[in-house]
Each structure stands twice: as structure tokens, then as C-alpha cells.
Design brief:
about 250 residues; Helix Hairpins; binds zinc ion; three-stranded mixed β-sheet
Length: about 250
């Protein structure tokens, strides 16, 4: 493709991209709002699950503790009974030590139980709070999502047409030039290709172009950029031709 055709195609591509930008602009902050709410809701969901998981674990651990408490109490009873019947001091002391150990264990288990119950209370309240927050956010999210979907559906056909049109132009341009175009567009958040405007200035940053650049541009032997802003410069005749095409 000769440079002139390439520039023309790029310029046409940009016209379509600007129309797409316009459609997206109409949606305002809605897409970003919806996305942010989605993240918030998923974080809340995670926090609720974390707390509920803890509550489940707490219930099963409490059951285990109950069992262990039972066993330790039985052990203490058994050792106490045995101690009554022993004949030597050594046996007596050994059993006393066992009983003491078991009593320590008993205390330990009670402490753990209290600890779990305290944490359960906190987690329970947290779940309640998170769930009410979740319900509120969900409501806002749903209404914004519907609003966005309505907006998107309003311009859906138009958008589809532009995307198709865009594809048609983009396919004609080599990948290197296309990625250069897209990079500049991203960086400038708007136009990547600009004409020369009044007083020989760049149509993007309005800095005056050196005479040599203006001569180069007329040659159309390669793609030239503005030294100040990096935007691709397009000779005015291409802009005019493209506009004429549009009318025709
Ligand atoms: Zn410039």
C-alpha cells in the first residue's frame, strides 16, 4: 500500500474510532461504576464466606471439645478411684500427677471453648453487618447495571456497525503502523492522526511545524509525526478527500 493510501485508511479508521469514543462517552461513568460495584460485592461475598467458614469450624471444634472434656472428666474419676486403692506412696504420687495433668487439660479446654465463643460472637455480628452492606450494594449495583444495559442496547446496532467498519479499515493497515496508531491514541486519549492547521501548526498540539516537515509531508514518501506530541501528521488533501468520500 502506498503511503498516501495508508494515511487515508488510518484517517478513516480514526473517524470510526472517534465515533466509537462518542458512544462510550455517552455511557459516562456508568461502566466504571458498575465495575467498581462488582469488585466491592465480590469482596463482601468473600468476607462473608470467610466469617461463615469460621462459624462452621467453630461449631465442629466445640463438639470435639465437648467430647474431649467428657473423656478427661472420666479419666479424672477413674484416677481418683484408683488412688483410693493404692498401697504405695509412689503409686499415689503417680496417680496424683495424672490427675493434675488431666485437670490442667480440663482448664485448657475450657479456655479454648471460651475463646471460640468470643470469636463466634464477633464473627456473627460481622456476618450480619456484611450481609446488610451486601444487600445495599447489590441494590445499587442492580439498578446501575440495568441502566447501563439499557444505554448499551440503545446504541448496540450503531456500535456493532462501527466495530465492523473499524475492522475493515484496520485489516488494510500493516500491523506495525496499526500498533503505532493505537499507541499514540492511547497516549493522547483521542486523536492519533492530525492535519496541519492554521499557521502551519500541528493539529494536535498546535506547535508550529518546521518548513522542512511541511515539505516532507507533501512528498508522502513515508509517515511523518509531529516532533512535539508524536501524533501522525496527515496532509490536508487526504482530509479533504476523505470528507468528499463521506459526502459521496
Ligand atoms: Zn503536535
Amino acid at each position: 500500500m502506498v503511503v498516501k493510501d495508508k494515511l487515508k485508511t488510518l484517517y478513516e479508521l480514526q473517524q470510526v474510532d472517534l465515533k466509537l469514543d462518542g458512544l462510550l462517552e455517552e455511557r459516562g461513568d456508568l461502566p466504571a461504576d458498575v465495575e467498581e460495584l462488582e469488585k466491592k460485592i465480590s469482596t463482601l461475598k468473600g468476607q462473608i464466606k470467610e466469617n461463615e467458614d469460621y462459624l462452621k469450624k467453630a461449631v465442629s471444634r466445640k463438639k470435639e471439645i465437648d467430647k474431649e472434656l467428657d473423656e478427661v472428666r472420666k479419666r479424672i474419676d477413674k484416677f481418683t478411684d484408683m488412688r483410693i486403692k493404692v498401697k504405695t506412696n509412689r503409686e499415689y504420687d503417680a496417680l496424683s500427677k495424672q490427675i493434675d495433668n488431666s485437670k490442667d487439660k480440663l482448664q485448657e479446654l475450657h479456655k479454648e471453648l471460651e475463646n471460640i465463643q468470643a470469636k463466634e460472637a464477633v464473627a456473627g455480628k460481622e456476618v450480619e453487618k456484611l450481609k446488610s452492606e451486601y444487600t445495599d450494594e447489590e441494590q445499587v449495583y442492580s439498578s446501575k447495571k440495568v441502566e447501563l444495559e439499557e444505554l448499551v442496547s440503545l446504541t448496540h446496532d450503531e456500535e456493532k456497525r462501527y466495530v465492523k467498519e473499524r475492522e475493515k479499515f484496520a485489516q488494510k493497515v500493516d500491523r506495525q503502523t496499526l500498533s503505532r496508531y493505537e499507541m499514540i491514541r492511547k497516549a493522547t486519549k483521542g486523536k492519533a492522526i492530525v492535519p496541519v492547521v492554521r499557521r502551519n501548526a500541528c493539529g494536535g498540539c498546535y506547535n508550529v511545524l518546521p518548513p522542512q516537515r511541511l515539505l516532507d509531508l507533501r512528498q508522502m514518501d513515508k509517515i511523518y509525526s509531529c516532533d512535539h506530541c508524536g501524533r501522525i501528521l496527515v496532509p490536508n488533501e487526504i482530509v479533504d478527500e476523505t470528507s468528499t468520500d463521506k459526502v459521496g
